[in-house]
Records
---
Amino acid sequence: MSNASTSPATFDPSLVKYRDQMECVVRWAEIGTWEWSRNTRTFKINPEFFAKHAITNLDPNSLTEEEWAQMIDPQDRDRALAQFVDLIAGKHTIYDEIYRLTTGNGTISAHAHGGTVEFTPDGEPLRITGTIQDITTFRAIEEAIIRRDRLLAASNESARILLSAGGNGFDHAVWKVLDLLGHAAEVDRVYIWKNYRGEDGRLYTTQVYEWSLGAEPQQGNELTVGIAFEESIPTWDAILTADRCINSLVRNMPQAEQNQLSPQGIISILVAPIMFENEFWGFIGFDDCHREREWSSPEEGILKTAGMLIASAIVRENTANMLEKERLFFQKTVETSPISIAVVRDAVLLSANNRFLEQSCFKIGDSIFPMFVNADDRKTILETIDAHGIIQDFSLQIYDGGGTIRDTLCTGLQIEYEGHPAVLVWLIDITPIKRTEKELMLARDLAESGTHAKSEFLARMSHEIRTPMNAVLGLAYLCLQTELAPRQHDYLTKIQTAAKNLLGIIDDILDFSKIEAGKMELERIPFNLGEVVREATLVIEHQAKEKGLELIVRLQETDGEFLLGDPLRLRQVLTNLLSNAVKFTEKGAVTITVQAEKVESDCVTQSFCIEDTGIGMTPEQLKGLFQSFTQADGSTTRRFGGTGLGLVITKNLIELMGGSVHVESVSHRGTLFRFRLQFPRLRQMNANDRNALLSKKRVLIVDDDHTALAIIKNIILSFDMRTDVVDSGHAAIEALNNAVKLGDPYHIMLLDWKMPRMDGLETVRRIRTLEEIHSLPQILMVSAYDRSECIRQARGLGLAGFVVKPVTYSAIRDAIFDAFMLRFSPEPADETAHNDGVDHVKGAKILLVEDNKINQMVAAELLKMSAVELTVVDDGQQAVDAVRQQEFSLILMDVQMPVMDGLTATREIRLLDKPGIDKLPIIAMTANAMDADYQRSIEAGMNDHLTKPIDPIKLRLALENWIVRK
C-alpha cells in the first residue's frame, strides 16, 4: 500500500474503512501483497503470506532483491528477474509473471506475481505494488484436465485404429494403440497381460503385448511369462477381480510385488483390470520408471476403458482367426472329401466338390435329375425336404458318369446359398460296402450253418458217448469197492483210466468248441482250495509213479477256508498242466506250488506254479505253445500223442477266471508254468462241521437211468444221509408231496436234466407252482450234457448247483455241501414272488384261440394250474364270434390259423361295438419268435407276445400282469 501521508483537511473515514475491508479480503483469500521501493531496493510483503508458506528465516518488511531471487525456482529465476529488470527500466508498466517458489518447508509451489509501477513526475519508477497468489492447485487441475483430454483423444483414436485393424496388420495396430496411450499418459512402458487357468487349477497370467520408451523392454523374459498370481502378485487377484485399479508406488507394495516389479525398473505403476463377459480376462498396465506418480480417478477410468477396447479387439481378432482357420479347414475337407457334396437349387447344380463332379460328370449349371435311377426317389427326397427341411441317410441308386448304377446314402439339408434357398446334398457311395455285405452275409450263413452243424453234432455225440461212459465209470467204481483179485483190480483200474482218458478227450473237444464260440461260462460256488489241489494231484499221482517221477506238492493249508469260484475249471487247469508236466518228463520231479500271495479281508490272490525237469522247449517252440492242435514239434506229437488242445483250453480258462499264464522253459532242463487268480473269501468250516451239517438229512434222487441212480445213491449213503430214488419228474413231484404230508420234507433233490416226458427243468417249474409244497428242497441239476447250456436254460429257476456226469464222490459231496451253505444261485429264484398274484387270476375267464389240438391240450393243462375258466376255439373267426357274445378277462391268440389268422382276428375284435373292448388284454401265443413278429402283434392291437414252446412261468406272469384285479 502507498506510504503517502494524508492531511487532516482531506481525511476521508470511508477510505479507511475501505482499506480495512480490502486487507481483510486479501488476508482471507490468502493473497499476498508486496511493495518494492526504489529508495531501499527491498520488498515489503505482508506477514500472512510468509506465515502461510512457513518462511521464517527472512524479514517480510525488508526482503532484498537477492533474497527474493533465491526463493524462485532455478528453472524460472532468469525469466522472472529479467521481466522485473525491464519493469524498473521503464520498458513495462505492469509486472505479470508465473514462477515457482521454494517455501520454508522445502516444497515448491506455483505462484502468479503481478504488480504496477508508480512513477515520479520526471518519469522515474518510484515504487511497485502488487499481489502474489499461490496457484499450485489451479495449475494441477489445469494439467489434470489437459492430461485427461489427451488420454481421451488417445483412447478415441485407439478405438478407431482397432475397429479398422485386422489380419496381418493387427499386431502392429495394437502396438500403435499402446504407443498412443504411452505418449498421452507420459509413461515409460504400456502392456497387456492375459490370464489363464493352469493344469494345477491356479490362476496364471502372461504378457502378450508391450510398448516401451525410455525403459528396458520386458516381454518374453521370465518376469512376464507364466506368472502365478498367488506367488508373484498375491494381492492383485482380489483387487482386479473386484474391478478396481492398482495405483501405487512400488516401494509401498508388499514384498512379493516388489520382488516382481523392481527388477523391471518400475517406480510407480497403474494397473487396470480387463473384465470380459464378467470374467477377469487380464489387465493393462502403465509403468513410470523415472518418477513417482499417482493417477487420478478419471485417468484410471479412461485407461481401463482403453484396456477393454484392446482386449475386445484381441478377442475379436482371435475369434476371426479361429473362424477363418475353421473355414479353410472345412473348405479343404469338402474339396478333398471322398463323399460327393453339392449345392443345388431347383435341381440345378450350383456348386460341387471334386468327388461329385468326377462321379457324375456334371458341370455347374447342369440339371441333376438324369442321375436318379428311380423317379419315385427324386419325388420322395423333394417332398421330405420341403416338409422337414432335411432328409438323412436315404438309400438312393444313381447313375455315375459312365452309366453304372451306384448304391448311395443321400442326405439333403435345406440351406440359404447366396441369399436364396438351396439344398446341400451329401452322397456316400456304399456300392463296395453293399457288395461286401452280400459276400459277408453269404460267408456268415455258411459259417453259422457249419457252426450249428458242428455244435449239434458235438452235443449229440457228447450225449451218446457220455451215457454209456457213465455206466462204464459207475460200474467200474462199484466193482472196485468189492473184494477183487489183484489181476481183476488191475484190469478194472485200467478200464477206468482209459474211460477217463476218452472222456477227457471229449471234454477237451467240447471245451475248445465252446471257447471258440464264446459260450464258455464259469460257476461261482464255494470250494476248498486244498481239496481241489489234492483231487488234481490224485489224478496225476499214478501216472508219476509209473514213470518213476517224484510228485512234490507244496500247498499252503487254509484250515477249511472256502473260496468262491469254479472248482471244476480250476481243477481242469491244474490237471492239464500237471498231466503235461508228467508226460514230457522222463526223470526227476514235477512240483506244484500253491500259496496265498495277497490276503485281504474279503478276497485272496493265489499263486499257482507247476514246474518240471522234463525236455523243456526252445524259444521258437515257446512262440507256438498256445496254438490249437500243436505241440512242441511233429516228433513230439508222434512220440507223446495228444490233441494239442490242452494248453489252449488251459490258457483260455485262466483268462476267463481273471488271470494270465506265464511260461519259462529251457530246452533239456525243464518248464515252469505260473499264473495268479483272485478269489472272494467265505467263512471257514471244518470237516466235523460239514459232516454234522449233512448227517441224517433227507435226499431225493431223480434219474431215468437206473445205473446212475445206484451210483449216486451209494455215494450219498456214505455221507450218512437218508436217501430215496425215483425215475421220473412226475414220481418226484409225488414223492415231494408225500414227504410234506408226513412232516418229513426233503432237504436236497438231485434231478437229472434230460429225462423222457418231463425233463428236469420242467419238473422244477412244476414244483415251483405247487402251493401245497411249502418247504422246497435245495435242487441240484445232474446232466451228461453241456453244463454251460444247462446253466443258461436254468436261469431264473433258483437252482442250488449243477453236477456233471460221470459223477464223482467229491463232486457230489461238494455240491450237496454248497447247497446247504446257501451260497450259490445263478440268479435269484424270483418265481415264488409271484404267488401273491395267483388269487386274482383264479376264476378269470380266458379265451384260448388255437387250431392245433396238441397245443390246445398243452396250453389248457398249463392254464388249469391257475384255476381259470377256459373257453377254447379253433380259429380267429370263432374268436371274434365268442368275444361278441361273451365277456372275457383275457385272450390267448395264436397267429397262424385257418379261416382267419390271429392278427386279423385281433383287428376285428378291436373294432367291435362293445364297451371296454379297447382294454381287453389280447396276448399272442405263437411260434413266430422274431422281433418283427412281435412288432406285428403290437401293431395289430395285441398287448403282449409269448413265443412257443410256452414257458409256464412266463405264461403265469403274463396272466398276472394283464388280468385286472377285481
Note: The first strand starts at residue 31 and ends at 37.
---
Amino acid sequence: MRQSMALLLALAARPARALIPRLHHIPRAAVARHMSDAPVNLVVDPETGEEMSKSALKKLQKQRKIDAKKAAKKQKAAEAAPAVVEDTGPPLVAAQLPFSIEAPIDDQPRFGDMDVCRSQAPSSDVPSTIKALQAGENAWVRCRVANVRSTGRAVFLVLRSLDDAAETLQACYFKDKADPRSNEALKFLERLTCESIVDCRGTVAEATVETCSRGDVELQLNSCKVVTRAPATLPFLVEDASRSEAEIAESQSTERPFASVSQEARLDYRWLELRTPASAATLKLQAAVCRLYRNAMDARGFVEIHSPKLIAGESESGAGVFTTDYFGETACLAQSPQLYKQLAVAGDLGGVYEVGPVFRAENSNTRRHLCEFTGLDFEVPIVSHYSEAISIGHGVFKAIFEGLEEECSDLLTSVRAQFPSSKPVISEEPVVLHFDDALQLLRDAGVAPEDQDDLSGADELRLGEIVKEKHGVDFFVVDRYPSSIRPFYTMLDPSDSSRSNSYDFFLRGQEICSGAQRVHDPALLRDQLRARAASLAHRARRRYRRYRLVEAPAPSTRHPTRASLRRREGPRSRRRGPLGLAQELHAGLRARRAAARGLRVWLGARRLPLPRARQH
C-alpha cells in the first residue's frame, strides 16, 4: 500500500494522457480517487468507461446547450398558454343530420350531410343569390362546390350558383384555437366533393378575391350542410369543359397542360356539360332570342299561331321527311309551317308568325343541315313588292341583335370567353344585293367560275368578307335567285323569268333565313307546276340517253333513238343506272303529288282537279 501511494505521487507531476495507457494495471477507481487534486480532469464516457476525445466533448457540450434551450422554450410556452378548458358541448360535425333549412342553434351540429329532402315541412325562406350579397350581413346560400382548397389551418371553397354558372363566391373557414372542435369541421370541409350541393351560412365580409366573379366579398362560414353529395370521381371536370380551344392549345407547351373534353363526352354527360358557363348561357340566349322575336313581331301587329307538327304528307318537297305510324297510316313530321301560315293569311289574320320545332331528314354533318331545330317563321301579305318582307325581316333581326347586346351582355360575355366573337354590325336600312351582282363580286375576287348559277358554302363565306370590306356590315340580303334552284311555287321575276322573287339573309357569310314571294294565283301555279315537271322530264331523258350512250355505244355513227334503245336493251333498261329515267320521273311525280296536296290545303278545298303527269 505504501509503495502504491509513492508511485502515484511520483506520477502526479507528469502529463496524465501519456501515463494513463501505462497504468492499465492500476484500478481506475483508485486513479480517480487519488487524482482529484491533479491539474488535468478526466471526462469518462458513461457508456464505455473510456476517456472522451476533445471533439466528442465539444459535441456533448453543444448538445447539452441545445437541450437546455428547448427545455426553457417549452417551459416558457407552457407558462404563456391559457388553461385548457375541456369542452363538454355537442360536436360541430354530425354523420347524419335531418333535412332542414333552418339555421342551427348553439346546441346543434353545424356541419354534416343532411337527410334526403322528402318535402318534410314547407317554408317561405329562400336562399340569397350570390349577386345580392352585401358586406356585413349574415347570409344563407345554396350552391355547388366548384373547388376545395386546404392550407392546414383554413379551408377555402369556391361556390357556384345553381341558377347562373358564371356566378362564383369564395367561402372560408379558419381553425379556432380556443375550440378544438374546429379541427373536425376542417376535416369535414376538406372531404367535400366537387359538384356537391351545400347550404352555407355565415357572415359576408369584404375581401379581394381574384378567382371568383364576386371579387369584393367572401363568406366566412359558420355552418355548412351537404344537401346532395356528388361522387368523388366524375366523367370530367366542369372547369376543364369550360376552357376555350385556344387556352387548351397554349397550355400544351407547359409543364401542366390542360385536359380537353371530347364532344362525345359532352353529349353523353350533357347534364354535367350544361353546368359550364358557356353552355348554360347558350340556352338562356336561345330563350332570349325567342322572347325578343315575339316582342318584335307583336309590336308590328303580327299574330302568333301554332301549326300541327304531325301531318299527313310532306310540307316541303325540297327537304327530306321523317315518317311514323299514325294508327295504321303513315304520318310525317312537319318540315315547315309554311302551308298553315298561308292558310292563316288567306283567312284574313294579317301577318302571322310561329316559334316551333322543325324536322328534316337531312343526313349531313354540316352546320347548314339539322334534323331538328327551332324555327322562327313569319308570313305577311304584301301590298305591292316582296321587298316589304325584306324590310320587316331586317327590322326584326336588328331588334334581336341589339336586344341581346343590351339585355344579355353578361350571357354573351360567358359565351365569348369560350367561343370568341364580336358584336355584329347591322345597318339601319337593309343592304340588298341581287344574285347577279353578288356573283360578279365573287368573280372579281377570283372565286366563282363563270358558269356558276348558285353559291356554295365557301362562296357565301367569301361574299360575307367582301360585303364587310365594301359596305362595312355583317348582315346583308341576297335576292333574285335563279328560278331553277327555287321551289316551283316561288313567284318569277316579271322582267326575267330565269330569276325569282326570292331572298336569303346572311350573317357574316352564313345563311340564317330564307324567303320568297309565293305564287298566289291557282292558274299561274298550275302553269309553273307543268313547266317544272316538263323540265324534270327533259333532264331525265337527257341523262338517260347520256348514260346509255356511254355504256353501250351504237355501231353506227348516228345517235340511237329512244325507241331503238328500248328495243335493243329490253323493257327493263329504264330501271338501270344511278339516275335512270324511271327513277327520276318517279321522284318528279312524288314532288308533283306533294305540291298538289299543298295546293289543296292552301285553297282550303278537299279536292282540286290537277292534270295528271303522263307516265313514260
Note: The chain has 18 helices and 19 strands.
---
Amino acid sequence: MPLSLRILLVASILVPLLFLLGTALYDRQQLTAQAYADADRLSAIAKEHALKVVETNALVLDRIEDRIRGLSWDQIDAEAEPIQRWMVLLDEAVAQSISLHLVRPDARVALLSIAWPTPPLDLSTRGYFRSLVAGERGLVFGPPRLSRLTGIVTFVMARRRETAEGRFDGAVIGSILPGYFQAQWHAMDPEGRATFTLLRTDGQILASHPTKDGNGLFDPPEPGSVPAAVLHPSEAGVAIQRFGERQEWLTAFRKVGEHPLVVSVTVSMDRVAGEWLRNTALTGSICLVVALALSLTTALAIRRWRSEQRVQARLSVTADELRGEIARRETAEAGLMQAQRLEALGRLTGGIAHDFNNLLTAILGTVHLLERHIGAAADDRVRKLLGVARDAVQRGAKLNASLLAFARRQRLHTESLDANELVQGFTPLIQRALGEAVTLALVLDPELPACRADAAQLEAALLNLAINARDAMPRGGTVTLTTRPARLDQTLLASNPDAKPGDYVAISLRDVGTGMPAAVLERVFEPFFTTKPQGKGTGLGLSQVFGFIRQLGGHVAIDSTPGEGSVVTLYLPEAEELPAAPRRPAPCCRPRPSPAWLAPPSWWSRMTSGCGRWRRRRCAMPAIG
C-alpha cells in the first residue's frame, strides 16, 4: 500500500478523533466558563433585587415610624383604629409585604395591619426581638415562620424604636413573603439550572428556590457548616467557590448592601458535565459519521488501488508471458531456421556425397583394372602410384562417409541396447582417446531403460565427443559421462521435426574446458565448420553426430558457457523390447560390412560387363571409412 493511502487511512480516523478531543476540551472550558459567568450574572441580579425589596420595606418601616413619632403608647392606643387602617393601606401598597406590626417594649403586639382588633400576640421569645432589646440597631431579620393568622410562611424584617433619650421603645416589623423572591428567581432562571438562596450572615436561610421539601421552612445552620463567604461577606463584589466531595457545586455569594444578608446562586457542575457529555456525544456522533465516511472513501481508494495493482500485476504477468512467448518464438524460429539450414545443407551434402561416391567407385575400379591389366609387368614406380591412388580413394571414402552421416543417408543397424553396458565396455577406448591429463568419470543410472541405436555409430559418436572435450581442455581436467532417463516435450523438440515427444535415454558428456560463445553454438553442427587451427580438424565430427542422432529419431542438445565448459547430450529413443543378452564384440574385432555407398552404379557395370572376375571380386573389396 502506498504511503499516501496509509496517511489517508490514518488521517480518516485520527483527524475526526483529534477534532472530537479538541472540541470536547474547548466545550468543557466554555461550559465551565459559562457556569462561572452565569453564577456571577445571576447573583448580581438576585442581589440587586433583594436590595430593592429590603430597601422598599425599610421605607415602609420608616413611614410607620414617621406616623407614630412623638406619640406615647397611650396616645397610640387612643389612635389605634385610625393608625391600623392607615397601616392596612400602606401594607396593600407593597406587594412583597404581607403584614406590618407595631410592637410594644414588653413584646406585645400593639397594632397589626391584617387584623382588628389586634389579637394578643407576644414576641418575647423571638430571637430577632431579643436582639433589638439587646441594642441591635439597623434592620434585623428573623427566620421564616408559618403565620398562625394567615397560614403563610414569611420572614420578618424589624427595626428598633427608641425614645428621644435613646432607650428601647418597642419595634416596627414587616413580614416579607419568600415567594416574592422565588417568583423573581424563577423568572431569572426558568430552566431551573441554578439554585437561589437568601441568607443571613449567620447562615440562616430566609428564602430558597427551588426548595427541597416545598414548605419554605429551614432549620438553623449547624455550627461549622456556614461558608466563610457568608459569615464574612466581601464588600467588594462576588465570591465564587466550589463545594462538595467532587467539587460538584459552584456557588457565587454577594452581600446585600449594608444589611446582614447574603444572596447565593449555586450551579451544579454535574449538570454542566451532563451538558458537556451530551454535546460531546453529539459531536462524537458527527465525528463518527465523518470518520466512517472518510474511512469508507479511503477503503474505496485502497480497494481501487489494490484492483489497479491486481490489474497491473496481471498486465505485468501477461507482459512477461508475452515477452516469454516472444522469446520462445524467437528461439523456436531461430532453431527452425537452424534446422532448415542444416536440412538444406544435409540435402546438398547428400547429393554431393552420392555423386562423389560414384566418382570414387569409378576411380577405385579403374585402379583395380590397371593393376589387372599391367599385372606382373608393373614396376615399383607404377605399383607405388597405384597405391597412392588407392589411399586417396580410401581417404575420400572416409570423408564421404561423414558427409552421408550428416545427410542421414547412411545405413544403420539399429537394435535395442543397454546404454550403461555399452558405455562401460567402451570406457577404455574413450580414456585412451582422452589421454593421461584428462580424467573420465562415469555417472550411470542403474534403472536406465533400453534404447534403440546403432552400437558402432553410437560408439563412434561418443569417441568423437570425447576427442572434442579433450581438445577443449589443453591443461587437462575431468570429463563426466552420464546416463539417465529423460522426457522431451514439444517445446524442447520445436526445432527437431525428426523426433517426437516422449521418453528418451540421455547420454551426456560434460567437460570443464574453454566453452563456446553463442555465435559458435549457432553453427556448431554445420559440416566443415570448426574452430580448430587449420589442419587440426575437418569440421565433420559434430555434424556426423548430429546426422546420426537425427536419423535415429533422437535429439541432440549442446550447452556451453565460455570459461566453464560444455555439455553435449544425446537423446536416444527408448526401446520397447529388452536388449539382447550377449554383448556385441568390441568394435576393433567386429566384422564390418562393405559400405553401401561403394556399390558401383549401372554405368560402371555395363562398362565392365565382360569382366566376370570383377563381379566376383566386388564383395572382396576392402571397406573404406
Note: DSSP finds 14 helices and 18 strands in the chain.
---
Amino acid sequence: MGIAQREVSVAGTLCRLMSAGLVGLSLGIAPAVASPNGVPVTANAGMGTGDVGPGDAAPSSARATGGIDGAGNSAPLTTPLPPAAAPAYAPAATPRASAPSTVASPVRGGVDSAGDGAAPAAAQVNPPPVQPAPAQTATPAPATPAPATPPSAPQPVEAADPLAPVGEAIAALIATPEAVTTSKKEQEALAAFYGARQNMPVFVSDTGLDVRGKAVIARLDAAGEDGLDPSDYQVPLPKRGATAADLARTELKIAVAAMTYARHAQAGRFDPGRISSLVTPVRDIPDPTAALTKVAYAPDANAALAAFNPPHAGYKALKAQLARANGSAPTIPAIPPGPQVKPGASDPRMPTLRARLGVTERPGNDLVYDPTLVDAVKAFQESAKIKPTGIIGPQTLAALNVGATGGGGSLRNDVIANMERWRWLPRDLGEKNVMVNIPEFMVRINQDGRVIHETRVVVGKPETPTPLLTREMQYIVVNPAWNIPPSIARNEMMPLLRSDPGALARRGIQVVRNGSGGYSFRQDPGERNALGRIKFMFPNDHSVYLHDTPSKALFQNDRRAYSHGCVRVYEPLKFGEVIFDMGLPGDTWSEQRIAKMFGGSERYINLKQRFPVHIVYFNAFVDGSGRLVMREDLYGINAATKTFLGLDGKQRIADSATPKTAPRAR
C-alpha cells in the first residue's frame, strides 16, 4: 500500500473512531466509563497505557502496549507511560460491585490474603465493539519494563536497653555461682530467680542502686534492731561511674545478703542441735528462692525483709527491751555467782548486794548477811514473784542481776540470746497450744493469743535436762503404768536392788525378765506410781511427757528441777480439765469427772483436736506487767547461745551459710 493510501486508511479509521465516541478531538481526552463507585475505570484510555487507574500498579508489559483497547489490535497511539510506582503501604482494596462487562482475572499482588508483595492488576473492561480495520502490520512497541519491587516499609528502631549489659554481666557471674556464694541452695536460688527474669537486675539501675535496692540496704543496716549483726549483711555500694560488671556484682551481693538475712531472722544463725542433742526445736527455715522473690516483688522491700523476724508477742516485747538497752551503759553492779546464802551467814558478796539494793545501813562486819539486808532481799523477792524466804539462791541472784554487767555479759546480750531462741519456734504456734518454759518452771495453756491457764511445773535436773521440742498433744492416759526407762533402771534401780532387795517391791516396782535375756522394770498404776494418776502424751523421740506426781511438796520450791526429764504438773486435774475441753470440744469435762476415772487399769483417751506442745527455754522474758524478768540459766543453754553468737567476747561460731542440718519433721 502506498503512503497516500495508508494515510487515507488511517484517517478513515480515526474518523470512524471519533464518530463512535471512542477518540476525542484531542488524543489526550478519552470518554470515561463510570464504575459503580463513580471512579472512571478507563481513566487513561487512549493514552497507550491500557486501563490503568490512578491508584493501580502497572500491569505486565504485554498488556501495557495494547493500543486503543489494550488488546493489541492496533498500533499504539502514544508512547507507553512508565509503570506507576506502588505505594509503600498498599491500602486495603474496597470491594467493587460486579459490572456487566467482563472483568479479567486479577493478578496476585499487593498485600492480600496470601501476604504477597506485588500490586494487583487493574480490571480490564471491553469497550463497545467496532468495525475491524484493515489488517495492519503493526510495528512492535517497545516493551514496558517490569515494575520495580516496592520498597519495604520502614521498621521502628527499638532503643537499646541500658540494663542489657548489666543483665549480661549477671548471667556471666551466675555461670560460676560458687564465686558469688558458697551455699548450694543460694546458688540454685540465684539461677532460678534471675533465669526467670532473663538475668535482668531488680536492685540496681544502670547508674547505681534503685529504690528497691536502697530499701533492702536500709533494712540490712538496721539489723541490730532485731538483735542481728549488721556486719553479716554488708554490701559495698557501687561507686559513681560503676561498670556493668560492678553493678552486676552489687546486684548479686544484695540478693545473697537478703536471703541470708531472711534465714537468720526467721530460723536463727546456727543449728540449735549443736548445743545439745536434747535441743530439738522445729524451725521454719525459709526457702531461698521464695524469700528472694518476696523481697523483690513486695511493695515495700524493707518491710518484707523485716517481716521474716518472729511475729510472736514474746519476741516483740524483748525487742522493745533491746531498744532500751542499746546505747546505754549499764550502771548496775553484778553479784557474782556462789553458794546459797542464808540469813546470818557471812559472805564476801554482801557489800555488792547492799549496793545493788540501795541499803546504806551497815553492820559492824560488812560481810554479814544482817537482818536489815535480809528484809531488803525479801522485799525484792516478793516484787520478783519469788517466794520471800530471804535465802539467796540461783533464782534470786538471776533476778538481782537483771541489767547488770559481769559474770558473762550484759543485759543486752542476754536479751539478744533469748530473742535468738524465739527464732527456733514455728512461726505459727497454734491457735491453741501448751508452752512450758523451763527456766521459769511454768506451763501455760494459750488460746487465741491469750493465757487461759497457767501453773507451776517441775522440770529435769541439770544432769537429766528436759529437752526442747515441739510436738502435738495426741492422747491422755488415766491410771498410767510406769515402764521405767533403761537409763533409770541401770543408774538407779539396779544399785537400789543390790543394796536393798526389798526396796523395789515396797514401791510397787516389778522386775520382769524380757525376751533378750535382760530385765525390765515396771510400776503398776496406783497412788505410789511416779507418774501419778494421769499423764498427757505428745509422742516424741525423747519419751518425755507431762504428768501428775505423788511428790506434791516439791512445787513449793522456787527452783523446781528434780525430774529425769519429764515435766510434772501442779494440780493436774485443773490442768487436765482445760486440756480435755480443748481436745474434746462439745463434751462436758470437769475435775470431778476426771477424778472419777482414777483407779483401776490404764485408760487411753484420744483427743479429737490436736494442738502443739512447745517446750522452750527463755531465761529472759517480759511478764504481764511489762517488766523484764531474768531467771537462772539452769542448763547453760543461754550461755551456749551467746557463745555461738560471739556475744561473750569469744570468737563467734554461728553459721553464716545455710544450716548443715535439715529441720526436723514434726
Note: Residues 244-267 form the longest helix (24 residues).
